[in-house]
Amino acid sequence: MNVSFSAAIGNFDGVHKGHKKLLEKVKNDADKSGLNTKVLTFNPYPFEFFKWHKKRIINEFDKKEILKEIGIDEIVSIEFDEKFRNLKAEEFFELYIKKGKIKSLTVGNDFKFGKDRSGDADLLRNLCKKNDITFSLFEDFKVDDVRVSSSIIRKHLEKGNFADVEKCLGRKLKFTGDVIHGKKFGTRISTPTANIDLQNKEYCFNGVFLCSVMVNDKKFFGIANFGTKPTFDDFRQSLEVHIFDFGENIYYQSLTIEFLCKIRDQIKFESTDDLKNQIHKDIDKAKSLIKDYE
Q1: Which of 58, 78, 131, 183 has the most CB atoms within 10 Å of its CB?
Q2: 116 with 213, same domain?
Q3: SS3 of 202, please?
Q4: Taking the model in full, what pTM does it have?
Q5: Residue 223 half-sphere exposure, CB side, CA atoms within 13 Å?
Q6: Is residue 283 domain-resident?
């Protein structure tokens, strides 16, 4: 079957309102020309490969699920490795756009591609023109006169501004992952938690949060610790969720956690007892806020 595509290229980290507007155009172009839709994205992201001081917003599973919900027919996740980083801009075009049967292409106005980011929108426009591919440059999308971008969402998350995050995303921030065995820190302090598999990725926010949790299509509320555990000198990022009024064995099941609001930053406590006392206060505060999200 000879299928051709209307496509977009980018990280799409967060899949925010700007991304969605761009993808609406991709879908409209597809409908007009009888094409399927495709997204070319990367895993790891370039900033993860180069270890820049930047971390991701959402995981691969949730990103792909959101893209499918939007109506994207094909999602190509390119492995960003040493071989890929050395592709010249023209080689990238040949391999992924021309051979990928893309007939209509839309990218953001800050798009760069090829080794050392040597390719820009002007080069891409010229390559598309030579190969009879329709090219479009998507302009900025704004909310409250502010450009929506993954960078601004990261800043909101760092500050715990979840109302602004929701404005930019058009939904609450969520994280889906499998429950795995952890180090039993929660059990040691009498607050059992579900430890969520982060798939060796690092995320751009941390703290203690009120959250909602979907378990077997049932909704519960809980409190999430996302980040390191400085009191135990464990500085790897983890996500642990204490689900209120819940006692089932859910190892290896998949949970979806929605972050509702930030309770506090992470801090190092002088003793385990101090931590236990603070967690009880955190739980009381979180439960007092549930009424705002029911």
Answers
A1: 58
A2: no
A3: coil
A4: 0.93
A5: 21
A6: yes
